[in-house]
Amino acid sequence: MHIRVILPVIGESLLDSVRREAEAWAAPGTTIDCVSLERGTASIESEYDEALSAPGILQRIDEARADGVDGVFITCFGDPGVHAAREIIDAPVVGGFEPATLTALSLGEKVGIVTVLPNVLPMLNSLARRYTIERRIGTIRVVDLPVLGLEDHDVLLNRLFEQASDAVGKGEADVIILGCTGMLGVAEELKKRLADKGFDVPVVDPTGAAITWLESCVRLGLTPSRTTYMPPPAKDRAV
């Protein structure tokens, strides 16, 4: 099984860490490769960033289709370009939000998301409405760190724990989701810290949810429905 991970930002400095994280979740026999964009933004933290990244993402989807990959993970919690991508490739495509939230909803009644900045809250609320799950999202909170400022795991974990423990303690969440795919390698430690405080709740890592979701779809032989994701009509396009 071959899964292509698309890092929907410019630059190559994060590729190795993103690939290692995806490989850590993948089953034996799954091959992971990872590519970034030739044009776009350094991170996605707004609708503007997401719009600028879309052409580069779809370019990488065209390449993935030509390479015959079995599944594609666009590694961003905002699911940029996911629905457009499903129209042009006969392989399952996910971002971070959809597989993480659907996994979380199978584990508890109310979901709490802890994400990066206030800028992304409208984007996540919009996704919740699109997927018709807004009634089961008890809270969306922020650690007030930019995507490119998540490399200090001590600071990140402290802020995640502060927000997650408060959400669970106030009855706003039964499951915690890491609301950015850049929050690498912290899910288990956060779960342990919550358990030490007396909160026995799952913590869903969006990368883990996405990779295992794709593997399940591939093994089940599932691809995007063509009554939902219809191929775009033929016409001239300048991109």
UniProtKB/TrEMBL annotation:
Enzyme Commission (EC) number: 5.1.99.3
Record InterPro entries: Asp/Glu/hydantoin_racemase, Hydantoin_racemase-like, Iso_Racemase_Enz_sf
Superkingdom field: Bacteria
Signal sequence, renumbered to the chain: none
Pfam families per UniProt: Asp_Glu_race
GO molecular function, one term: allantoin racemase activity
Name under which the protein is recorded: Allantoin racemase
UniProt source species: Kribbella shirazensis
